[in-house]
Amino acid sequence: MTPLSQLLPGQFGKLASLNPERGVDQRLMALGLLPGMVLKLIRKAPLGDPLAIEFGGQVVSLRLAEAENLIVDVSADCPIQRPRQP
Amino acid sequence: MSTPDAGLLVALVGNPNTGKSTLFNALTGLRQRVGNYPGVTVARKSGTCDLGDGQKVELVDLPGLYSLAAASPDEQVVIDALSGNIAGDRRPDAVVLVVDSTNLLRNLFLASQVAELGRPVVIVLNQADVAKEQGLRIDTELLSRRLGGVPVVMSSAWKGEGILDVRRGIARAITQQTQMKRVTWPTNIATALVDVATSAAADTGKPISEAEAQRLLFDTNPSTADRLGWTLAQREKTLRTARDRVRNSGYNPMAAEPLVHYAHLRLILEGVVTEGAGKAGRSAAVDRLLLHRFLGPVLFLGIMLGFFGSVFWLAKFPMEWIQSGVDWTKAIVAPQLDAYPMLQSLLADGIIGGVGAFLVFLPQILILFLFIGILEDSGYMARAAFIMDRLFSWCGLNGKSFVPLLSGFACAIPSLLSTRTIEDPKARLATAFVVPFMSCSARFPVYALMCSAFIFPTYGAGWQSVAMIGMHCVGLFFAVPTAFVLTRLVLKVKPQPFVLELPRYQMPKPRDVIWRMWQNAAEFVSKAGTVIFAITIIVWALSYFPRDPSVAERIKASNPTSTEEVLKAKVQATYVEQSYMGRFGKAVQPIFDPLGFDWKITVGVLASFPAREVIVSTLGVTYSVGEGAEADSQHLRKAMQDAKWSEGPRAGTPIFSLAAVLALMVFFALCSQCGPTIATLAQETGGWKWAAGSFVYMTALAWLAGTAVYQVVIRLT
Fold this sequence. Notes:
Chain A has helices at 23-30, 64-67; strands spanning 2-3, 12-17, 38-44, 51-55, 58-62, 71-73. By secondary structure, chain A is of the alpha+beta class. Chain A has a domain at 1-43 and 64-80: Ferrous iron transport protein A (FeoA) (SH3 type barrels). Chain A has a 6-stranded antiparallel sheet. The longest helix of chain A is centred in the first third of the chain and has 8 residues, at 23-30. Among the domains of chain B are: 9-176, P-loop containing nucleotide triphosphate hydrolases (Rossmann fold, 3-Layer(aba) Sandwich), CATH 3.40.50.300; 187-250. The longest helix of chain B is centred in the middle third of the chain and has 47 residues, at 444-490. Chain A binds chain B through residues 20-24, 26-32, 34, 42-43, 45-50, 52, 56-63, 65-66, and chain B through 66-67, 69, 71, 102-103, 105-106, 109, 220, 252-255, 258-259, 262, 283-284, 287, 291-294, 296-297, 382, 385-387, 389-391, 393, 399, 495-502.
């Protein structure tokens, strides 16, 4: 189990849990990011924050601090690409 | 905002980036009206739409949103509009749900929430051409059947395809009252919703709809409860019990709504979309370049500097044409009224000058909105915000603040209008509040005059550049802490979540971009324009009256040897000195004394309220070098260099000492001496409260900084 903020660009994961009390997570849930959803960290912004993630056929940006509470299972049965080394 | 005719009202609802506005323009054919929803700065756009059979309805384009959870004013307006809770507005007779064909699941979440409001709906699968390109095939008949028989039509508003089908779909929704299939709430949640509705109705004495009960139960934001007048004391226990009931059934109450809706929609969409061979979107490839770690920022800077350079340079020409048009009109009109000097001045300096005062902003507004339209509709604006967010997030702003702040260096007026692109209302307000700190082009003539008359002759070109660059940084230096303090201490907001969709890249549609540019300009002229005009007239009157004709004769008599031109300048100067503005300036000069301002500078500062650069021509008049002085005027420079204090402790020393010059420049860099900015700030923040706050705050800050500069420098030199 890894916080989304620690994924490397190109890495996939399956959303394990989020915190529905928070505004950010409520917005993400409205976009369809619910537990069990496969997501991919596409890239970080040039200054390292925010992140761009892909899920359900859309690309969404969120801040690093806001991605800390999103727990992702990177070992689940989702395709894992070799993370690109920075 | 209501239209007097009792015709039918249809609302257009959908996610952002679904081509909703393009569809709106296609359906109404630009027969549109733009207004504001009462009490909020959310625009209400409506137009007349033909249903294909000659029947006409009023179509209203509601703000784009992802969910009905009332987190922002935009979202609140959509809920209120769909429930018929907006004063003077009717409840819509049908709702058009605009859906992106390439992402049905996410788009239908909003549709499913709207279905709970019980209005007849028609589903428009827009951007069908893109879905086709990607090889997606959608079985609209199956979808329609699964959704309870609501009309489901495909369209491509960008290409103008399927518009007639949309019109017919609306007609069918109205005649057949087509209701979309609603979710089945698990028993415990259904019971909790009934409990909430019953208690709220009992406590408030108002009937509570099912949709309202859902907002009360599921939203952390209390705006629905507040609007219904259901107080915290009344609702606390009911909501806690109801939410516990939801929790006992295995759902987190804050997650139940999306979980239930998405599960419901997955079943509905089963087998509706088949993926065939198609081209994958190019957006990912474009992003690899435009969001590249090194190339991304370089391209970003190139695009921004290119765009804003052109706002500045392209607008210069039409601005000069407007200025010469104003001068030409004055030159034509003024001689006709030589016999009536008061009327002549009212018409030439007051009315024609007042019209010119807001017309002159139009080129910048039009060009800036042309570029913003291109940036937004192409999808790059979201990327720009993505790249820049880190620089702004720490002081409570976000990546979308960048464009308004950068364009603020050209002019605060278009820049304030462009804060509309920021969705988060708190970040929008904070950005608008600090925009006037950016050193706009109207401050430039003031810096130029001071530097060329006082810094350059004594200290040389190097220090002149330092002073010019320094003045452009002073505002920025104060803007950032201001934003920080404002968002953290005054508005007391937690950092707002910044969840931003990076939409598919798309070619902007010229008609949409030009139309939006035009609507923004028209709104500026009709709202802020009238205020700017009024300010110009008032300041004209204060500087003109009273005007005793005996003054001119007295001056002529006491200076028998002077030339006609010198006499005229002296008379002008005396009139200004004796005007209400002059008297007021002399009266308040002691306030500006710590900054080293004499009464002439004080009058110049006060009279420059309609436009900052006016101080140059006011100084021209008060220093008796005649009207129409420019920043590079030799005479004005000479007159100012020679000016000395005639009395008081500083008698005999030059008025424009280095200390006073620096204090004046710093004062101008920070002060809010710009009526148009205040008028526009009031327009954009929905009232005079923030505009007045901005004026008081900036003036106080300018006074303190100016005083500090003067007092320190005068002791050092």
